[in-house]
Prior knowledge:
Blueprint: H1 7-15, H2 25-28, E1 31-34, E2 37-40, H3 45-52, E3 61-65, H4 71-82, H5 87-90, H6 95-98, H7 119-123, E4 131-134, H8 144-148, E5 151-156, H9 159-169, H10 182-190, H11 199-207, E6 215-219, H12 220-225, H13 227-238, H14 244-252, H15 256-261, H16 274-278, H17 298-312
Parallel strand pairs: 3-4, 3-5, 5-6
Antiparallel strand pairs: 1-2
Amino acid sequence: MRNLANTLAYVEYVTATSKLDALPDFAKEYCYEIDGWVMPKLNPKRFLDDLKNYEVRSDDTYLITWPKSGTTWMQNILTLIFANGDMDAVREKHLFDRVPFLEMPQGLDYKKAENDNGLYEIARDMPSPRILKTQLPPPFLPSQLEEKKPKIVYVARNPKDAAVSHFHFCNVSPALPQYRDWNDFFIDFCNDSIPRGSWFENVFYWWNKRNEPNVLFITYEEMKKDLRASVVRVCEFLGKDLSEEIIDVVTENSTFAAMKKDPKSNPDSLPIFKEAVKQKRSFLRKGEVGDWKNHFTVAQNEIFDDLYREKTEGTDVNFTFQL
Ligand code: PPS
């Protein structure tokens, strides 16, 4: 059943059955299914229940994404903007410690997550203004986001590059299914059955909110095309009036090369990624638009384009797949 020729038949099969059951055995070990969404065991149900009722502050800034869409990049930009470009101040903490990833366990171990503290619990004690990040699918987001209306920065990336990046990350993070075969991942991505589920449902939800005054919808491709203009756009959204010099500092320290060089912004320096680094795999892998072309076969591309056309029909969703 899991071969490319049967992908479309397989998509139909999966919609008629449990998404989790349809996963290959090696992937099932890392995931569970809840309300039709496949979630990583790294984010146990207890955390989701707590986060649904999480106390949101109106002066919070939420960074929300579908995985591998530029979360870490925007996290860096936001923390530099909040610090007015003071690099010594931001470098006191690693980038991942500056912004709690709400639904993650403190130990980042999927086998122990159930009994660990969630980072959302740690974030409860943080002084305002907080920058918080989450990759929760829309149904699991804190309900208070609607009433408290904190600033929300949503970063989206074209689905082909996001999928490729996610595939590679499965062999970087010890908490994700170790997909070795791109076609296996491609099938599960098309079926919305990889951890955290559907790119389409996640992105469309925020696309539809993109004109709400507390929401900034920005794309990876836009950031790649003109990083400085993107930094300015984020500053304007946050109401931060930074000087031209400070905007330059934020921009220069947020390029792929600068973040890779700085152990305080490069996630590879964290113990959790030690094994991956030994195998010459990197969290900051390529940082490009269009790397999907090195992965998608002609047949996969046709299948995905059909799916994309079908899902986006009647919407004005518009992504850039190459620069
Ligand atoms: S995660 O694990 O979901 O939080 O990953 P996320 O940070 O969302 O996405 C990781 C990808 O973003 C790329 N990245 C960057 N690209 C360009 N410039 C900068 N500064 C930058 N920082 C991170 C990172 O390399 C991953 O993409 P790929 O395509 O795998 O290289």
